Amino acid sequence: MSSVPPVTQRPWICSPVDEALAQQFTNELNIPLTVGKVLVRRGMDSVEAAKEFLEPRWADLHDPSELPDMAEAVEMILAVRDAEGIVGVFGDYDVDGISGSAILLEVLQHLGIKTESRLPNRIREGYGLGLAAVEEFSEKEVDLIVTVDGGSNDVEAIQQAMTLGMEVIVTDHHPIRHESVDFLLVHPERPDRECRSVGLCGAGVAYKLAWAVAREVSGGGPVDDKTRDLLVEMSGFAALGTVADVVPLQGENRILVRHGMKVLQSTRRPGLEALMDLCKVDRTNITATDIGFKLGPHLNAAGRLGEAEDSLELLLTPHADRGRELAQGLAVQNRKRKEIENQMVTECIEELEAGQHPERGPLIFAREGWHTGVAGIVASRMTDKYGRPAWVLCIEDDIVRGSGRGFPEWSLAEMYPLMEPLVEKVGGHPVAGGVTLKLDQLPHLRSALLKIEENRELDRTPPPRYFDDELSVGDLKMELVQHLERLAPFGAKNREPLFKIHGLRIDGTPRLVGEGQKHVQAHFRGDGIRIPSIWFNAAGRAQELTKGGEVTLMAHLGINDFRGRHLQLRIVDCLEN
User: Which domains does the chain have, with CATH numbers?
Assistant: First the structure.
């Protein structure tokens, strides 16, 4: 081992853009050139595509029948209904699986179908459909199991379900690791079937299934008013899962989230209302940030530290008292999650400072007493801080479980084949995965992952961070911000526009604000205007704003509604001039 790996300053890059196409968008869509450039950088290659992006419509959702095995799945569900049987809905313990389960349970029950539900315990059972859940469904005389946000690779459990006389429908969006499929698999990214709904999360797939079943009950035509209203309401649940699962906010996902957030603004579900109040969410203007950083972490907290069933009940309960009780319980769990997370991050950094990790390759942390429910968040924080993929592994007796995080440019997917011979279970997405192995295999896993670097160039640079345009102070106008708001909701593949802003001078002394005085509030002057700003979790960098002369900031442009509407910068970085 060697010296402490440095905290990596990932470089800022403004990727090239087709200026002519951006200008065409500006001329034909009557938008600022800066917005035109952002649209080009988000992959828009025609005026029509840009217009659809700016104005996402319900009518542009693809027909659910395009998903593989959808017709057969609908037929199987309705056969169970006609036989007065029971459908068992098996979800996942994260927001995607929870919200997708809520969608199916609500719609199937509305259509007169008897249901049972089950979510796994992250600690005891881990991810996916397991034998214990199958046995429980069998004991409850379930006739058909429908999975949500999982099940594609749970062949043993599916075969056991069939042996016990149950049918199985898998709805999922995770990578499929086997070649043949001998069960119904409603999945937008099956290698053997083309589908235009690529990119849907688990809740999105569940929403399509619920829609297809409702339509078939109505004879294949338009659904009745009550069913239509319920499907519209369920788009709010789909929005929760889509944002929280960090799938691309393009195409159908953009449509579901844009309209689903409007539904959430007017929801009358007691649990959600209580959670929004507790999280101080502005009900008049819910954003993807509210879901990703307020509602989502609370809903996830139950599955991380306790039972995900609490979050599912919160979404479904019709009782105000129970809704408040559940929301308060999630808040307690989320606070505890933060405490555990911070402690684990501290211990990871201590290992680095003690020289226990090499300077190159993936970071691999493993310790007894760590909580597997928080491992993924800690891995993400270490990845962001050090610019390297990170695995955070929790040792309990002779079993090691944990999560990894990476980058598109430095993917976990390249690690999975090396890991598979050494572990009991591994997989996930290119930038987020999970693993389970025996303790005696841990040294071999470390060696295998570090060997990845032996075949790489020695000068591997950390993955860059991207911004969208360079602005001067004179460009900072409310009109530009209002046009930028049309690009929302922001998230994966549609990150919030970020700008390099020149010509700013500090006005007064920055203040530390917020709980624990972790944030920096400051004002800048330039071109005759005064501009407020906020820099979250940057108390240790406040002095960088006051070095004298002009500063250059990397910042988002937003609107602050406190005491009127005015432009506000949300600082991401301060650059040396």
Answer: 12-55+465-575 (2.40.50.460), 60-229 (3.90.1640.30), 361-454 (3.10.310.30)
